[in-house]
Design a protein that fits this description.
The complex is a heterotetramer of chains A (484), B (633), C (101) and D (165). Chain B is mainly α and 633 residues long. Chain B has 23 helices and 2 strands. In chain C, 77% of the residues lie in helices and 0% in strands. The chains are: A mainly alpha (484), B mainly alpha (633), C mainly alpha (101), D mainly alpha (165).
Chain lengths: 484, 633, 101, 165
């Protein structure tokens, strides 16, 4: 019997290989190094891997092909997302080190799992086949389930992990059912073939159910209402560094897949999904913002805020045009930086072991730690969407895309929502600058590297808000693959 | 210099960075040098640009200075570029000039404040944003400035955050302004949707292609006007401004009188090309402006806090500016904006000087007889008051008279009548302020020792007083060719379609001027009667001529009747408007919305029960809705 | 004689429904897990049936991957349940609601 | 053929229902094993021999053993006490909703399937065919599953190892 092995170019999946190998090596080091290899080196090693993967991505830029018998796309869309993922992973690793040491959890496995999760994200963004996307979802999720439960002595962490795992598996079952339905209707898992089929023969019962259940599966991962309910509990209970990581990584990866599938496979039947997503987007934004108003735990507040942001990003998806897709890419990049920055400050202010997570623990921060308060303000302003930060422009791109596509009411609701959001974000600023500290809470948990990271992130938020040109060009260049 | 006009906001930006980042490390003197100095540099640069602009050939005007491409995409473009035209130059001069004076004044006023550097960094940041707002060549960049000034205003109102009322006021200003910003942002989106661009020049050029009164232009202009009502404190979004007086007084002068609150007027004038195509919006602008002017003036009648009187007066004067815009007299609006910036900044700084001298006392009932203790402050306040009352030849006379005149000729006789009544009330309450503060008996506590302020505060006052005196002469209305202001601004302003080219005789104009002066005179007279003459008269007369006591008593009785029939109802009405309409209806609406959202929040959060199976059920409901949507049809 | 594909699909969806109901009504986390496994198996059945329908092996390939995923999820899930049991003494999901609202 | 199918289907359904309604976790697990066996047999009917084999090896063999192991380890053999009626309304609503959704899908979609027309290749579903596909077209996902399994192993160890170092 003869087997035709398809031609494979390993450089096409360079970042994937780097991250996987680095993860494996980390596990080996952790197992065999004993005391010889100090724990301090794990994160440095993983950061090096992330940087190498980043360089590989940059080197691959503008390559446009498919590989592994069309299983993955090698295109700028996936590269752009790779940059987002790697940036998110890198910053999360930096934020983790000190935090974990306080808990004596600075395991090599931790970093290995993060790198594997990044592998899953990359697969989701690059997947040209529903099998790959499904596997990507799982390779991303399972490490995060584990990492959410990392503090196994802590019931909150246990609870977060179990809730996430149960609901994640439950929603995966629906996602899988959807994939099966699409396969049943069309006989293929390849996005390109699915697109061709639907363009030619339109929708049938199977593809309807399949499309609907894909919305469920991706909607769960991006925390779209009514699939968002896990978000606050999991974000609150998980270790803060993991909350930071998943708030940006999972969301970006799920949006990558969401965007790719819906703009590649279903653009011709837009009329069939835009109303559903319209309703979902409105519900998502409203639930996120309105509930965030009542929160006093900052992690929980940021969880609701991340739900709301999913709603804003959905606006771009509903618009479904080039500007919308570009806006999503730009926004996700901005969101990654600003949200991680905000979580970085949260980790620092929480001091040792998540002691101070209430928003009133931020009182007086503006005077005790002016630098920290200043960068936090930048991140919060950006989350609000205040000019001239990146968050403002991102929202502006998304909303103008929707206006361009004629969804005026959606934009009105989205703008009202971002007005509501001002209240709870600005409340933190007010507390930082306009309330005296009630007691001395001890020094914040900062290291020079974290300091530098936060400052660079804050500057980046301002910089790509004021000079968005080149980032926007790159993003636009990356979504050229979606016709229209 | 015009090519480098972008330096104008850069100077205060540098000031902001130095004071904001190094504030704690550098000495107070350095802060005092950097804060006002950076704005002074801006002002000097603006003057240079102004001079250069006057000598540019007509073909080269207006100048657009490209800085960088801010947003570029196939369908959407916005530049970071500055527009230098007569309108923005006037605004630049006002903002940087008055801003500079107020910065200098602040050096004295805030001298002992622990957050000295923080104060100047906020103030500098405000100037940066305000300059961006007036120089922007497109709506989006304008919005950047618009949000920025709102933020700084918020920070500065709540500057003394230890006071609960101050941080509440800051919050209120922020919430109310959000509503306005919503309108503005929506307007921008609609402009992009309609015209495919947000650049002023391109939008205004295309506006002529629409029929007059087209629905979309009406909606756009109304949305923009909602933005303007928020920023410029018009009905129904004006309640934040009186509360904003919790901030330091120079801030009230700069932000809540001279510059930021006029941004709405500037925006409407800037969009005159859109407004003239939307008569309905024009009417709305005029009516809201008129109603605000009247209502705020009547509330001002009964206020006892010196800054609140000025605050309501500001709301009222802004109403006049919108009235002018609404009847198509955009130039008159900008003219009044400019003179108002002079005299209202003067009045606020003057009141700040009084408060400073009175060790923080703001209640006019606890003042009186300060005329001799604070002669300079008294003199300049009197100039400001005469200017705002519209007495010839002070600045307010020309601008207010022009508005009243235009309201009559281009608007409606009803507009004119109500506006004149408002002007009378303005004259009344302003002189009431003067009389209560500087005349009469001293009513202050014995441990208060009023004193004149240091020169660093009085010199800006004197400069502003001079400007309030002569500032009106740039727009002398009667003689052809003397109205320099009109001719200068003309290129920036669109005109209402022909039909109003009726030339009024000079006699008519002069007559109207006399009428408006007369109206102001009546207001002053009533104030004089009630606050100077009346309290002293009975006592004096009884002592000297006991036989005439009955007569005087009777006269007093007449006054009592007059009080009961005229004064009390007005006063009560004023209090009613203030306490009921102002605090209950409008605040109630704002707070009500907030509490509805809050309560909604408490309800929605209950959905998040913590039970994992509820969440699973949520997912299942989503699945059911989606499959039902696809298969149930 | 051929079995109509729809039979498989109806059986598969019935099992899927039973699994869903199990997730919704049981308190014991382990049984909820079993129910999720049943849902995945139901999907596997329909994938096999579709594979038969289309005469393409792809459906069966996905079944293979689903099994791997299920195994991974179970391993992690049971480890978690074990940890929770050690901390709490039971594994009832309706007693896991420290975090809410 | 059809009779065999119906027998197997009935077994699968009944054992499935028993999994959900049994109060004793051990019994639930055993019924699940039965369910998996029935499904494996149905896979054989549907021309998926290889899948049928690994269904028994992986699912009924490995996964279910793991379940039973944990149940025994945690001594969860006793039936869950009380609490079943908690959130009863919600549970009834959820169950009816799930049934309704599935009924809708069956009614609207699954009824209309036409039987396949193409002839079957003799090796369809065989190990050889699966393997061929697995190492050509599905090479990347196959490799990626190794990461997935590694993650699961590492995760289980991190979570469940007894001592904190």
């Amino acid at each position: 019997m003869s087997i035709d092995i398809p031609t494979i170019c390993l450089t096409n999946i360079g970042p994937l290989i780097t991250l996987s190998v680095a993860g494996l090596l980390l596990l080996l080091f952790d197992a065999f190094s004993g005391k010889a290899m100090k724990k301090a080196h794990f994160h440095q090693f993983s950061l090096v891997a992330v940087v190498i993967a980043l360089l590989q991505t940059v080197w691959l830029w503008n390559r446009q092909t498919t590989d592994f018998s069309r299983m993955i796309y090698v295109d700028n869309f996936s590269f752009f997302f790779n940059v987002i993922f790697l940036l998110g992973t890198g910053i999360s690793i930096i934020l983790s080190v000190h935090y974990l040491e306080n808990y004596r959890k600075n395991y090599g496995e931790y970093y290995a799992l993060m790198l594997f999760a990044a592998v899953g994200m990359i697969l989701m963004a690059a997947g040209g086949n529903l099998v790959i996307i499904f596997l990507g979802v799982e390779i991303l999720s399972i490490p995060i389930y584990i990492l959410s439960g990392l503090f196994r002595e802590d019931l909150k962490s246990n609870e977060a992990a179990l809730k996430y795992l149960l609901l994640g598996a439950f929603s995966s079952a629906f996602l899988l059912f959807g994939i099966a339905m699409l396969y049943g209707g069309t006989g293929t898992f390849y996005l390109a073939d699915l697109a061709a089929f639907i363009k030619k023969s339109g929708m049938n019962g199977f593809t309807y159910v399949g499309m609907g259940l894909l919305i469920v599966g991706f909607g769960f991962k991006v925390s779209m209402a009514p699939f968002h309910m896990w978000t606050p509990d999991v974000y609150e209970g998980a270790p803060t560094s993991i909350t930071a990581f998943m708030s940006v990584g999972t969301k970006a990866a799920a949006f990558a897949a969401f965007l790719r599938v819906f703009l590649e496979v279903f653009p011709t039947v837009r009329m069939e999904w835009d109303l559903l997503l319209w309703v979902a987007a409105v519900a998502t934004m409203t639930v996120g913002n309105v509930t965030a108003l009542a929160q006093t735990n900052i992690k929980r507040m940021l969880a609701y805020s991340s739900i709301a942001h999913a709603g804003y990003i959905l606006v771009g998806l509903i618009a479904g045009n080039q500007l919308g897709a570009t806006g999503i890419l730009y926004y996700l990049l901005a969101y990654t930086i600003m949200n991680l920055g905000a979580f970085g400050v949260v980790i620092a202010v929480a001091r040792k072991k998540d002691n101070y997570l209430n928003i009133y623990d931020y009182a007086g921060l503006g005077f005790q730690y002016p630098g920290l308060a200043a960068v936090m303000s930048v991140f919060l302003f950006s989350l609000v969407g205040m000019p001239p930060t990146a968050g403002f422009l991102g929202k502006f791109y998304l909303f103008s895309a929707a206006v361009e596509a004629g969804y005026i009411w959606l934009v009105i609701i989205a703008v009202i929502n971002s007005l509501i959001s001002v209240y709870y974000y600005l409340r933190i600023t007010v507390i930082m600058y306009m309330q005296p500290a009630e007691a001395d809470l001890g020094p914040v948990a900062m290291t020079p590297v974290v300091n530098a990271t936060l400052i660079i992130s804050a500057l980046a938020v301002l910089l790509i808000g004021i000079f968005p040109g080149s980032i926007f060009q790159l993003a636009m260049n990356s979504v050229k693959i979606f016709g229209s | 210099m015009i090519q480098y006009v972008w330096l104008v906001p850069v100077f205060p930006l540098i000031g902001f960075l130095i004071n904001g980042l190094l504030g704690k490390k550098i000495s107070k003197n350095t802060v005092s040098l950097v804060g006002p100095g950076s704005v002074g540099l801006s002002f000097a640069w603006v003057l240079g640009c102004f001079w250069e602009y006057l000598h540019l050939p007509a073909k080269a005007k207006p100048v657009e200075v490209f800085v960088f491409n801010w947003i570029t995409s196939g369908t959407f473009n916005a530049q970071a570029a500055f527009l230098v035209d007569p309108l923005s130059l006037v605004m630049l001069l006002v903002v940087s000039g008055v801003g500079f004076l107020i910065h200098i004044y602040s050096v004295g006023y805030m001298h002992d404040d622990p957050g000295y550097a923080r104060y100047f960094s906020y103030l500098n940041l405000f100037v940066v944003n305000m300059l961006i707002l007036v120089m922007a060549n497109n709506f989006l960049l304008m919005f950047v400035g618009w949000e920025g000034v709102g933020l700084c205003s918020y920070l500065l109102i709540g500057y003394w955050y230890e006071k609960q009322s101050a941080s509440d006021a800051g919050k209120k200003a922020f919430v109310v302004n959000r509503i306005g910003d919503f309108g503005f942002l929506l307007g921008i989106f609609l402009i992009f949707y309609t015209f495919g661009t947000v650049n002023f020049r391109e939008v205004f050029a295309q506006a002529h292609n629409f029929p007059v009164g087209s629905a979309i232009l009406t909606i756009i202009t109304l949305c923009l006007f909602v933005g303007a009502t928020g920023k410029s404190a018009q009905i129904p979004l004006y309640t934040w401004l009186p509360d904003a007086m919790e901030g330091p007084t120079p801030v009230s002068a700069l932000i809540h009188a001279a510059t930021m609150v006029t941004a709405g007027v500037y925006m409407v004038a800037r969009c005159s090309a859109l407004y003239v195509m939307a008569p309905i919006s024009m009417t709305v602008v005029a009516v809201i402006g008129l109603a605000t002017a009247f209502m705020a003036a009547s509330i001002g009648l009964a206020q006892n806090d010196i800054k609140r009187v000025l605050a309501y007066s500001t709301v009222s004067q802004l109403g006049y500016m919108f009235l002018a815009c609404g009847v198509g007299a955009f130039v008159a609006a900008i003219f009044h904006l400019m003179t108002h910036a002079f005299f209202k900044a003067l009045l606020f700084l003057g009141s700040g000087s009084v408060i400073h001298g009175m060790h923080g006392e703001q209640d006019m009932r606890k003042m009186g007889a300060l005329k001799n203790k604070m002669p300079i402050t008294y003199a300049v306040m009197l100039v400001g008051t005469l200017a705002i009352a519209g007495i010839f030849p002070f600045a307010g006379f020309f601008s207010k008279d022009e508005i009243l005149f235009k309201a009559l000729t281009d608007g409606h006789v009803g507009y004119w009548a109500i506006a004149s009544l408002g002007a009378m009330m303005t004259a009344f309450y302003m002189f009431r302020l003067i009389f209560m503060t500087f005349y009469g008996e001293k009513r202050w506590d014995h441990h208060v020792h009023p004193h004149e302020s240091p020169p660093v505060m009085t010199i800006p006052l004197i400069i502003l007083a001079i400007l309030s005196t002569v500032g009106g002469f740039v727009g002398i209305p009667l003689i052809q060719g003397w109205n320099v202001f009109h001719e200068f601004l003309a290129p920036s302003i669109a005109h209402v379609a022909a039909g109003h080219e009726v030339h009024h005789s000079m006699t008519f104009e002069v007559m109207m001027m006399l009428v408006s002066m007369g109206v102001a005179g009546i207001g002053i007279f009533i104030a004089y009667k009630m606050y100077i003459k009346q309290p002293e008269l009975p006592a004096q007369v009884t002592a000297k001529v006991p036989g005439l006591y009955d007569l005087i008593y009777n006269k007093y009785y007449v006054d009592e009747i007059y009080d009961a029939t005229v004064v009390e109802p007005i006063k009560n009405g004023s209090v009613f408007l203030w306490q009921e309409a102002d605090s209950k209806v409008i605040d109630g609406a704002v707070n009500g919305t907030a509490s509805v959202v809050d309560r909604l929040s408490l309800v929605i959060r209950k959905l998040e029960t913590g039970y994992v199976q509820n969440y699973a059920l949520g997912i299942l409901i989503g699945v059911a809705v989606i499959t039902g949507y696809y298969l149930g049809r | 004689m051929e079995i109509p594909i729809s039979y498989y699909l109806i059986l598969s969806s019935a099992l899927f429904a039973i699994g869903t109901v199990g997730v919704l009504i049981r308190r014991n986390a382990i049984i909820i897990f079993m129910s999720i496994e049943m849902m995945l198996n139901a999907v596997n059945l329909s994938l096999v049936a579709f594979s038969d329908l289309h005469r393409s092996i792809d459906g069966q390939m996905l079944v293979f991957f689903v099994m791997v995923v299920a195994a991974a999820e179970v391993a992690v899930g049971l480890a978690l349940i074990y940890v929770i049991f050690r901390n709490k003494g039971n594994v009832y999901v309706d007693e896991l609601n420290i975090m809410k609202w | 053929m059809q009779i065999i199918f119906f027998l197997l289907a009935a077994t699968a359904l009944i054992s499935g229902i028993m999994v959900v309604i049994q109060v004793n976790p051990v019994r639930s697990a055993l019924f699940l094993v039965l369910n998996f066996f029935a499904l494996a047999a149905i896979y054989l009917l549907a021309n998926a021999q290889f899948i049928a084999a690994i269904q028994i090896i992986v699912y009924a063999g490995a996964i279910m053993v793991l379940f039973l192991f944990v149940i025994m380890l945690l001594n969860l053999r006793q039936p869950e006490e009380g609490g079943a009626h908690r959130h009863l309304g919600q549970k009834i609503f959820g169950s009816s909703l799930a049934t309704a959704v599935i009924a809708l899908v069956i009614y609207k979609v699954f009824r209309m399937i036409v039987p396949p027309g193409k002839p079957l290749t003799p090796d369809f579903g065989s190990t050889e065919m699966v393997a061929k596909s697995l190492f050509t077209d599905y090479l990347l996902p196959f490799e990626m599953t190794s990461i997935l399994l590694l993650v699961a192993v590492v995760g289980a160890v991190i979570l469940a190892r007894s001592k904190v170092e």
